[in-house]
Amino acid sequence: MRPNDALQQLKFRDPVRARALRDALERLVWRADHAPVSVMHVCGSHEQAIAKFGLRAAFPRDLQVIMGPGCPVCVTDVPEVDEAVALAKQGVRIASYGDMLRVPGTSQSLADAKADGAQVDVVYSVTQAVDLARDTDEELVFFASGFETTAVATAAVLLDDPPDNFSVLSAHKYIPPVMEIVAEMPETKIEGFLAAGHAATITGSAVFEKFVERHGLPVVVAGFEPLDVLAGLVRLLELINAGEAKVENAYPRCVTREGNAHAQELLWRVFRPTGGRWRGIAHVPNGNLRLRDEFAHYDTRKRFTIDASALWSYAPPKLVQQCQCGDIMAGIASPSDCALFGNECTPDTPVGACMVSAEGTCKIWHQYGGHPDLSSMKRGVA
Ligand code: SF4
After folding, report:
1. Which fold has domain 78-174+260-313?
2. Strands of the sheet with 166-172, listed across from one edge
3. pLDDT score of 381 more than 90
4. Which residues are near ligand 1 (CB < 6 Å)?
5. Fewer CB within 10 Å, N side or C side of the chain?
6. Which architecture does CATH list for 12-71+175-258?
7. Are strands 93-96 and 120-122 parallel, antiparallel or unpaired?
């Protein structure tokens, strides 16, 4: 990190300003009937920032900041994992991000298939998967996960003439439609959303305007430093209290209303939105990103006959049936509501997808604590 970058970062971690924002939250959350205010963020990076900097311990007791379906690995649905596992067991070489290897399918994960002898490579980027394909004559399938931010990188390599033996099994997801699902859930108490600054850097803050119109809930785009999160929450509570349903950009140093037009062009040239299930959530209309017909040659689903039926004659173990990942991602439960959390289910022995990924709520809470007690600390924001 360059010295200037470090100074910039410290600027957004200033404890004096953090305390002032925390005090503002305390004032704004007050209601005569002491009813709590529930807001949701839809981003593993926000949960990491909240947990890593101990912000949840600094939030007023009546402010509930809930993580929704913001972990792309966690929402990759079981049949999508089954497709990758079935291909691997058919002898096709698979490359994917490390977290994706441990996500459970119906009966096996990619890590299980690898242990059984399948060729499964961990890559850190889609370009690394393309490099693997260039180094071999065999078919190389990239099992692609991630939201629209990551999908842009996949789109870029497909537009850059990858080798003929390379194809993409897309499990990419598109965030805005799932916010509609969460907002419409009958149990939901969400009064506003904190939107992910990195995704909005691509899509622009305007992408949330139709959602706000339809649901009458405010959306504030926020970044990932402690002051970004706190300032975003302050603005969100101000809008909630004023009854103003609008989109506000609290991350102007990166996000514009229009977003990155070039990245959007790459994304929509290669992908089309289509309906599909998100693990533990529901069928999400337009929530899945699939390759357009012009890219059929690079579409694993068009290139191979994938028969995953052999994986289905299987009853999930009792522990898996107790997993509450779905309720956690829908924002109606937290990891501490799950009896397995930190007991049978840990990052070394994950029962559900939320404990696998670095962006999964259960893993983040296990790593940092969900409601850390900072009362004994002399420094920091508490
Ligand atoms: Fe599922 Fe484990 Fe989280 Fe419980 S702690 S909800 S079993 S991932």
Report:
1. Rossmann fold (3.40.50)
2. 120-122, 93-96, 140-146, 166-172
3. no
4. 323-325, 328, 335, 338, 340-341, 345, 351-352, 354-355, 362
5. N
6. 3-Layer(aba) Sandwich (3.40)
7. parallel
Token digits for 258?
């229009």
pLDDT in tens, 5-40: 666 667 888 999 999 999 999 999 988 788 899 999
Task: For residue 355, give the ligand 1 atom closest to its CA.
Answer: 8
Handedness of CA 221, 224, 225, 226 (dihedral sign): positive
Q: Atom 7 in ligand 1: which residue has the minimum CA distance?
A: 323
Nearest to 289 by CA among 304, 311, 272: 272
Length of the chain (residues):
382
Task: Give the residue extent of every domain in the chain.
Answer: 12-71+175-258, 78-174+260-313, 318-368
Q: What is the pLDDT of residues 263-308, one digit of tens each?
A: 999 999 999 999 999 988 889 999 999 999 999 999 999 999 999 9
Q: Whose CA is nearest to atom 3 of ligand 1?
A: 362
Q: Where are the beta strands (DSSP E) in the chain?
A: 37-41, 63-67, 93-96, 120-122, 140-146, 166-172, 190-196, 219-222, 247-249, 271-278, 282-291
Q: What is the pLDDT of residues 353-380, one digit of tens each?
A: 899 988 899 999 999 877 766 555 544 4
The whole-number average pLDDT for the span 173-184 is 91
Amino acid at 150: T
Which of 351, 356, 359, 367 has the most ligand 1 atoms within 8 A of CB, as the residue to mutate?
A: 351
